[in-house]
User: Fold this.
Amino acid sequence: MLKKTENAPGFTLLNASQTEVSLSDFKGKKNVVLYFYPRDDTPGCTLEASEFTNLSGEFSRLQTIVIGVSKDSCKSHQSFIDKYNLKIELLADTEGELCERYGVWQEKTKKGETKMGIVRSTFIIDKKGVLSSVEYGTASAGHAPLVLEKIKKLK
Assistant:
């Protein structure tokens, strides 16, 4: 599990339009809200993505980009974006390497069944590439406004 004040693990993944996005693209320029979610177009994930989209203008004014990551494909991400008119970046971690590096690929129990999956988690990475907030096991509803308040407190 990652901890606050550590350097954020770097990454380069494809977004919904199959363009590479790297953490290094934002260093010195923007804060990054990197959130991991289980699956495109499911109720909780749609709610969370919609809340981040509704606040995207405010995040942008605070020099912050919001990036969602799941193991879904670029095609799935594009359909999700189109269906809900999402205004956030979605990255495809189809091999799960980034999920592993950020410690979000964990054992989960649902309805008595235990299996591996993405634990909904959010990381705020400052312009220097340092983790200023690390949250594992976040809720989908009401999470985006809480993240926005944390961004407002960044220097």
